[in-house]
């Protein structure tokens, strides 16, 4: 997850849409037939067509050289053993999707060919050499696998599979499609775009994923932090020497990582969604097909992440709407309860008023003081109309207002019954 100085950074094509045709052409380009005529048991290249030299590298376009001297990487590969067998037995050989590793070091690549080896005979009928005719099937083979896996990922996204499941599956697909050992990492941008969080990295060690979880986006912060900051791919071919990895070199060494190519994952509006990185165990320079593959899957990751963000926003909106509905329902229930309580209080007040009036009428003939006795310290000069009492036998006369107040607020106060009298009236009620 580290960056590369500007000269090594490629301009980013949109993941889906503009530039996609070029990526598909790079991945699914036309194969060319290769031909070479070899002589002698050392398989010296006598002649070959331009497609053959283009395949092995124009810098190696020479004849009169033994095949293994021209292409040292073939030593130990099955292709040489098959040539030896045809030369020794004179029996032709045809193989489909024969695997050949071309080149060495950072520029090595895996290729597949449909090959035919035909023995060449001299005038005496002895095998003098071999004609090699082949068609590279690498792109077709990779394209078939890529399309099948890519379709499966799109189906996952369409059925709204969890984002972690989609990203983890995508990482494993790319690792399986790669010709050599490859480790994929997807980091997700925080909403503010200032930090990157772990998204998926099924083959990277846990200690590495934990260490880079939450790294800042910024120039020089590894490949991923720089790619996120610049909004363009950052290619580091050798972590051991790249300055962007100064703060992470020891971590990369512990994880046995030697190169890292990181591409920003961008939304349709240009917003940062995350980064997509490819790691290798050895220093590596990306081929055109590697860059095309990165763009295709960066676009797939963008689609999955944007769909996930949309689903999150929808769920949040639904949760807010449900909370608002619940709050409204609670408010309605509370309002109904208050209205019912108010109606109950109104009925109780009316009943109390009626009782007070009836009691006042009944008590009017009884002897009573000239002023209300229930006015408290402030006193009350209103004429008393009602006598009230408590369970302990105390009683007092008061005006209608203060008598009602006592009946409502003073515990166990009731309208006195003059026929039974104070405490006796309470005890015999």
From TrEMBL:
InterPro entries: GAF (IPR003018), GAF-like_dom_sf (IPR029016), PAS_4 (IPR013656). Transmembrane segments: none annotated. It holds the Pfam family PAS_4. The keyword Coiled coil applies. Residues 162-315 form the GAF domain. Keywords: Coiled coil. It comes from the Bacteria. Residues 314-345 form a coiled coil. This is GAF domain-containing protein. It comes from Saccharothrix espanaensis (strain ATCC 51144 / DSM 44229 / JCM 9112 / NBRC 15066 / NRRL 15764). The lineage of its organism: Bacteria, Bacillati, Actinomycetota, Actinomycetes, Pseudonocardiales.
């Amino acid at each position: 997850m580290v960056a590369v100085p500007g000269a090594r950074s490629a301009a980013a094509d949109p993941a889906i849409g503009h530039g996609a045709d070029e990526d598909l052409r790079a991945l699914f380009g036309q194969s060319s037939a290769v031909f070479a005529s070899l002589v002698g048991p050392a398989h010296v290249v006598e002649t070959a067509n331009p497609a053959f030299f283009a395949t092995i590298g124009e810098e190696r376009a020479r004849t009169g050289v033994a095949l293994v001297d021209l292409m040292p990487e073939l030593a130990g590969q099955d292709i040489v053993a098959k040539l030896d067998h045809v030369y020794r037995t004179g029996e032709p050989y045809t193989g489909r999707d024969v695997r050949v590793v071309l080149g060495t070091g950072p520029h090595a690549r895996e290729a597949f060919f449909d090959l035919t080896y035909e023995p060449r005979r001299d005038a005496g009928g002895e095998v003098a050499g071999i004609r090699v005719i082949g068609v590279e099937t690498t792109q077709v083979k990779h394209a078939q696998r890529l399309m099948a896996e890519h379709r499966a990922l799109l189906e996952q996204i369409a059925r709204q599979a969890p984002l972690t499941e989609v990203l983890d599956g995508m990482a494993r697909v790319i690792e399986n499609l790669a010709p050599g050992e490859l480790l994929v990492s997807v980091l997700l941008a925080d909403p503010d775009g200032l930090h990157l969080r772990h998204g998926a990295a099924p083959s990277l060690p846990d200690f590495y994923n934990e260490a880079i979880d939450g790294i800042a986006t910024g120039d020089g912060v590894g490949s991923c932090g720089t790619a996120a900051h610049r909004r363009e791919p950052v290619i580091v071919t050798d972590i051991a020497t790249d300055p962007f990895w100064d703060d992470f070199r020891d971590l990369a060494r512990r994880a046995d990582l030697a190169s890292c190519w990181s591409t920003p994952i961008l939304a349709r509006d240009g917003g940062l969604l995350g980064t997509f990185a490819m790691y290798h165990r050895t220093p590596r320079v990306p081929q055109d097909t590697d860059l095309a593959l990165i763009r295709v899957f960066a676009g797939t990751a963008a689609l999955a992440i944007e769909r996930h963000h949309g689903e999150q926003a929808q769920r949040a909106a639904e949760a807010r709407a449900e909370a608002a509905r619940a709050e409204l329902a609670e408010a309605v229930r509370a309002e109904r309860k208050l209205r019912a309580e108010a109606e109950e209080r109104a009925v109780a007040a009316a009943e109390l008023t009626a009782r007070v009036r009836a009691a006042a009428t009944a008590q009017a003939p009884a002897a009573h003081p000239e002023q209300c006795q229930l006015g408290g310290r402030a006193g009350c000069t209103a004429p008393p109309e009602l006598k009230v009492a408590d369970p302990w036998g105390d009683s007092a006369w008061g005006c209608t207002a203060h008598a009602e107040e006592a009946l409502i607020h003073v515990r166990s106060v009731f309208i006195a019954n003059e026929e039974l009298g104070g405490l006796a009236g309470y005890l015999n009620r």
